[in-house]
Each structure stands twice: as C-alpha cells, then as structure tokens.
Amino acid sequence: MNKERLYLYDTTLRDGQQTQGVSFSTAEKCRIAEALDCLGVDYIEGGWPGANPTDSAFFDAAPKTSARLTAFGMTKRSGRSAENDEVLAAVMNAGTGAVCLVGKTHEFHVRAALGIALEENVENIARSLAHIVAQGREALFDAEHFFDGYKANPGYALECLRAALEAGTRWIVLCDTNGGTLPVEVGEITAAVIAAGIPGDRLGIHTHNDTESAVAASLAAVDAGARQIQGTLNGLGERCGNANLTTLIPTLLLKEPYASRYEIGVDPAALRSLSAVSRQLDEILNRVPLRQAAYVGASAFAHKAGLHASAILKEPSTYEHIDPETVGNARVIPMSNQAGQSNLRRRLAEAGIAVEPGDPALARLLDTIKEREDQGYSYDSAQASFEILARKELGQMPRFFEVKRYKVTIERRKNKYDRMVSLSEAVVVVKVDGEKKLSVSESMDSEGCDRGPVNALAKALAKDLGPYQNKIADMRLVDFKVRITQGGTEAATRVIIDSEDAEGRRWSTVGVSPNIVDASFEALLDAINWKLLRAE
Amino acid sequence: MNKERLYLYDTTLRDGQQTQGVSFSTAEKCRIAEALDCLGVDYIEGGWPGANPTDSAFFDAAPKTSARLTAFGMTKRSGRSAENDEVLAAVMNAGTGAVCLVGKTHEFHVRAALGIALEENVENIARSLAHIVAQGREALFDAEHFFDGYKANPGYALECLRAALEAGTRWIVLCDTNGGTLPVEVGEITAAVIAAGIPGDRLGIHTHNDTESAVAASLAAVDAGARQIQGTLNGLGERCGNANLTTLIPTLLLKEPYASRYEIGVDPAALRSLSAVSRQLDEILNRVPLRQAAYVGASAFAHKAGLHASAILKEPSTYEHIDPETVGNARVIPMSNQAGQSNLRRRLAEAGIAVEPGDPALARLLDTIKEREDQGYSYDSAQASFEILARKELGQMPRFFEVKRYKVTIERRKNKYDRMVSLSEAVVVVKVDGEKKLSVSESMDSEGCDRGPVNALAKALAKDLGPYQNKIADMRLVDFKVRITQGGTEAATRVIIDSEDAEGRRWSTVGVSPNIVDASFEALLDAINWKLLRAE
Which domains does chain A have, with CATH numbers? Predict the structure, then answer.
C-alpha cells in the first residue's frame, strides 16, 4: 500500500523560545538542532534572524543538517518593496534553504494591528513570498490567526491564502495563533480550505495548547487533508505551548489510522531515542521532566493500581497501549525490579565492568540504585557517579583518599569603602596514604571577584592530594546544575557537575543533600575519584 | 433555548490517587472534596472502601456535600452471590448515595485476567448492579477497557453494557482504561453504542491522557451523545493522568458549541475560582504548579513574543482566546530586553505604579533592566523583583529594614557516633527603625535533618524584623530554582524563589551572584520586601 508522506516542521528554536523562562544560547540551539536532525524532522525553524542577537548568531553557527533549516520572519511592511524591507532582508541574509513568513489573514487584525487596507495586506503577502521564491528559496506562509479570521470573514482569509499560493509558496500553514480553536472546528475549517481550492499537500497546521487540544487539533487537520505538522519538542511554546511533537511522532508511527496511511521521516530506531531526546531538552533547560508526559514521561508506563500491576506481570498488553521500549521508555512496577537486570548489565559493560547474569550483586545494586533515585539521585545524567556506585557495591572501587571534615564560611559585610562585599573560605581535611592534610582556599578569583562557597571548596579539595595531585591537575569543572528534587523548600537539592580533562574526556557526577554545599561536595568528590580511576 | 444537562463526575480522590508519588491523607481528601463541591461537580468519587485504610476512613469522615458522594468497587466475583461478596459488601457499607462498580467488557480480559466464561462475567455484572439498585442506591457501571473490547468483539462488549442497563444502572461509563484510543475513534464507538440502543443520557466517558488527547476524547464522546464526563482536577491519575476537569470545565462553559448547547453545575462565580482550586490542589500535594497548564497555568496568558505583547496592549482579544479573569487567572506581559516603554508602563500599572508616558524614568528603568538581564537576572520569571526594582528606580520603595551583614558557616565532620554529619549556621544583622538586631539560626529542622545554608539564612533573616515580624508570619517559600547563567563554573548563579502567603498570593523573586548563597539571599530579601509592600 502506498503511504502518503507527512512532513514534520519543528519550531522548538523559534516558538519554543517564547516559553516563559526559556532563552537558549547559541550553543544550546546548535545542540537541539543536532538532536532534531537525528530524530528525523523535515524542517528546523531556527529563529528570527535580525530580531535578536542569539537568533542571528545561531544561523551563522548552525550545524549541517539533513533537515531543512528555516528562517522565520514577517511579510514586508507597507510603503516599501520586498527588496527594500530591512527586516525581511535580515531574514533572507541568514541564507537558509527555506524561509517562513508570518502574515495576517484576519481582517480585524489587518485593520486594528496593521492599520492598513485589506487589499494592501494581500499585496504585501504576495510580494513578500514572491520575493522568497525569486531568490530560489522554499517559501512558507504562516497564516496568523487563520481560524479566527476564517470564522470572521472566510472570503478574505481565503484570499490571503490564494495570494500566497499563487506567489509560489510551497506550504500554507494554518495557524491557530491564540490556541482557542477546538479540534472539530480545526478539522472542518481545514476541509473547507481544501474544498476552496488550496491543495491539502500544500497545507500545514500550527496549533497551540490553550485548550489542551493541540495534539488532537493537529491530527484533525491531517484527517482533513493537511500534510505538514508544526510543533515543538516537549510542547514548549508561548503560553500553554505548541503542539507536542514528542507526542505526535509516536502517535503517527504507532496508532491507526496514521501508521497505515502515512509515512514520516522518523524511523523506528529514532523513535527509540525519543525519551532520551525529551530528557536532553529538559536537561539543557534545567527543567524537571514532566513525569506524566505522554509516551516519554517517567510515569507514562508506571502501573500503581494493584489490579493493573498484577495483570501486567501476566501480560503487559493488558494495561499498556504500546510497548514502552518502542519510544525508549520503560515499564515501572513498584513491586518488581526483575526487568532491570539485563539493562543494568549493559550499563555496567559500558563502564568496563563485567558481571555474570544472575550474579546476586545485580539485584543488590538495583536495590541501591532504586533507593538512591528515590532520594533524588539521577544516574541517567551522571554516568561517572553510576560507575563509582557500582564499583563500590561490587568491591571494585579503590579508596584513593578519605575526607575527614570540611568547613565553609560565607560572609557578607561592608568593606573599608563602605561597599557590601562577600567572601567564602573553605577548609578541607583529607587523609592520603595515612597522612593527614589540611588545605584552605578562598573564593576570590584573580580578578578579585567572589566565586562562592562551592568554588572555594573545590579549590581546597584539589589543593593537596599528595601522590594523586598531578593526576588531577588537568581537570576542570565545566558546568554545574542544581535542581530541587522534591518540590518545596525543605526538599533535597540535586547537584550535577560536568568535568573535563586535557584528554577531552567529559564526565558527569551527582550529589544530593538538603544542603546545597554538601550536595556539591559529594559531586566534586565523585568527579575527582572518577578521574583518578581513569588515570590509574 | 433549552440546554441539555451534562454531568461532571470527579475521580481525583480515587483515580487521581493512582498518580505516581501521590497519596492523600483522610484530612486532605476532605479538603479536596469541599473544594470540588464548591466548584459544582455532580459526583465525587471518594475511593474504594475496603481497599485501603485511608479510603475507608474518608467515607466515615467525609464532609456533607451537594455533590453526590460515590464509592468505587468492582463487580462481584464468581462463585458467590452479590450479597455474600465481602469486597462488594465493604463498598456498600460506606453508605454513599451512589456506587460505581468496574467490570470487564473485553473478552480477552475476561478469559486472561478473570479466567471465567464470558456468560459468567455478564451474569456477575447484572447481579452486582441489580444488588446496588435493590439497596436503593444510584448505580454506575465502569466498563473497563470498553473501547479495546468493542474493537475486539463488539457484540460481547455491548452485551455487557446491556446487562448493566437492564439491571437498572443509571450510568454506563465507557472507559478507555489504557488511554490509547484517539478522539475520533472514541466518538465513533460512542455513536455506535448509542445506535445499538444504549441511550446517550445514560452514558458516561472516562479517558486517560496517554496520547495527550484525554480532553479531546471526552469532548468527542459528548459530541456523539454521552452526557457524563469523568475526570480529575489538574489531570491527576495513573500513568499520564485522567481527563483534566480543570480544562474541560472552562471549555464547556466558554467554548462553542458547548456553551450554547449544554449546561453544567459550575456557575460563572465558581469558574472564577478555578485557578485558585487548581493551585490549592498542588499545594496539598506539595507540587510545583504547571506553568503552561491550559486556562489556569501561570503562563497561560503570558505574552512574551514582541509582536504579541505590543498588540495585546492595544487590544487584549488580539492574542487571547478568552478573558483570563473568567477563570480567575491573570494576563502576564513578561519583561524582556526587547520590550518597549508602553509595555513597561503597562507592567508598572499592573503593579499599581502609575508613570506618565515619556517620563524619563521609563528610559532609565529600561536601561537598568537591560543591564541586569545581561548580568543574568530574569524579570520575566520574577515579577515581584521587577516591581521592587521599578519602585527603587522611581523612588517609591520604602526601606523597611537594612541588612548590615551576614555570616553563614557550613561544617561537615564526624559526630560522636563516628558518622559524617553536616550543619549550617547563619548570623544576620539587620537594622530596623534605627535599632540593630542580631539573629542566629541553624539549618537543623524539627526532625534533626540538616536543611542547608539557605534554610538557615532564611530562618535567621525572618527571625526578628521588629514591627514587620507579624506581617511576614504567613509567608512560605514554595519553590527554589537555581541555574548557572553563563555556563562554566566561574559563572553567575541565578536563584529564583517562589513564595506564597495565607491569602493565596504567589510571587517570584530573583537573585544573581557567582556565590549561590548570596544569590539566594538577594532573592529572599526581595521576597520579604514584596510581602511587606502588600501588607502595607
């Protein structure tokens, strides 16, 4: 059977950046673009070149992708030609293969927000998109407020679309900008647009989650004939977010009628990476992953109800709508950890530790991991700490040195110039080869700036480790992430530290404590121990 | 025009309790039941009496409600009569006006999980529900796995429903237990059930969010003719959660075709309490509220995109699908370094600060904001700090107290039992009304657990503020977020603190410093100052 192709257009880097509290650095945008490309989306919208420095910088730094990199902008303003609109020029100058321009299709917005005649807006749309096509780029038209516009004045809304189509636009994207249109209406209006002569294989759908229906509305548009879906990873986006590609991708691949009718650029291997990609984005954003997220959430296949859990043990399909492994997720049954052993052996092998199947140490180690993960440790994102924990449990961890005690003081007071200044000081006492060593460091850097208690502690700890000193000399802390793991202020703090050495190794370690300095210290210790293991 | 009545059936206390990490106390269940009753749901499912001690205790302690309290259980087992099934007896003994029994309608489950003949299962359904009716209770039948069962064997699935109906069951609830059925199919199968003779006004719908479509699937069932909707507050529930009543209620009241066609038990005044009810549940669960939640989330009406924010200032309806006040929520126009003066004036007005257009203070304040955002401050997620910054710049910020200095000590060493323990101690010196006050606190909580330096500092700071002390007594820190803003360890740390008070206010403040304790202290100071401003 011939399947029809559906196209996925990701806007995590543009609309996703409108999420309250989210702002990507250029390097983060590059990492996300690479992840999206591995996943197999067709288009990656990178931002609005010219609108802010990060977006412009991203297009210069962007990785080479199979997915088509797309710049976003708006149709030219009135009173100048497309060639002479400097906002549009900045968008074109990003040099992407595809350009998507937002333009108005709702007569109220043309009058109220732009304050121009309806015909002038149509002209602006046509000229802008023709300009893109003339430059040899693939053109997309983002029809802003289309559904509300269609309901207010269908003739005008369609006229705007036709103007774009006739200008040679590849994709006309029906955008439910305010997110208030319910799925049934999205389906009906999409069908009406197709009936009015805009071909379905030129139509895209862009929805928002303001009624918690963005995914269903996207599917309703596909049912009606649209062939491009726009969305974001983890449903990031302005207000309540955009249509969630992390949900749409598995639904399109695994659920009927979509699985039989359509094909998309995501293959089964990429689908198995979906949970990891979702977590990677949260990691970049320093967000706590949503446990109950569809398909990829930590609770998505957790069976708590007694009736369900016992049936699942007999036959997983009784209470699971899909096999969790297809999306790289895992079943969680509070009572049993048997499923974990082969998985655990694989992770140990990756760290160079061989354990026979059935070794009782495996069950012990699983219990320890589970207990510590309940306390807030996260071994998924801290492989070096996982290795150290496993080696300890298996009796394969050398004891390089022992920390006897430490003390950190943070003081903030007025200096002699009557300015408030702060300073931290750390004393660490370690025992190395039977010898006790006291080290002290302060948090002031070479520029006289206070770098805080964790910095002072890291410096004191690394100051004198006797025979091991030269082995950690090339080690550098490159990132430091802190998260409250149980909500509320009286909860535990999880610190993840990324370290690097001169040989280009990069490793992550974790510490958990209600005391943030203590959690940091634990992660620092693991980081040094892992480096010493590798230096042996 | 005659509207048809739709009934809302809340299962927060039963299915919601299957959420991973959630377990309610009896007192919490009572508080939630009261909130649900004020909201205006028709049924409150309280739990499964006999299945666990909390559920049984709740039915004894339950508040008197207008909503019909409902006990949940399962159809009688084979080999005994309904009268002699002790599991069913425990459910009946709760004495509720309504009883809902789950039973199987999927032939595979009857054979695989129950291991009984298909006819025997039908008999168990009929006898169990007849027993409830005979006792003068309202009977509901929860048809487990109905959609999957109907697809496998429609004749048998319908036979089960008919048996329940003929036994006098008030509501037959079509349950998509595994959550994998998409909205279109839910609608088609519901229509087929009605066509097969089960009246729509006897049909309920119970969906799960495993494909992020539980809300849309519930609406599809209503479109097809079902007249009872089951769901939970905030979409709590097993795995990915149940259909979210917090979303469905405003959609039914505010969106077409539902608003014109149907009436529900929730009135406009109750609708305005919706955001508060949602937050109250999160507070009971000690969960961080989901910012992007539809209708009630803190970001649901946050307009970050420059184009949107400027249009909103002219006319809110341009980028809002409903008026946020109808659901007790509020519009947020986050500050960002692109925002212009009119946006700023709007934000100031919201904080009760009037500034004339063109006032030079506006440009000054914009510069200050931009400079601080470059340092890592984020006023988009910390509106209370924005207000304080603005008031300072405009000379409208009272100086309640002055911090002269502080000192925090963190120590980790062996205790007398040779175990490593840590303890933090903070000394804060403030000047209030010309009087110098020294306060000291340690980080140990009432359970002997070390809560770390920020906790010690917060306690010392709040310990003695003289005349202001009683004004901050009801203040509580509810979340604490830390992020490194410039990458690398030598970078600045941004701390955002969310606080709450007894009046239900919630505010966010920000602090930035390379020293995490110092950044936290700055955010704490803003939090207290903002509370004092409001208490004036």
Answer: 4-266 (3.20.20.70), 402-535 (3.30.160.270)
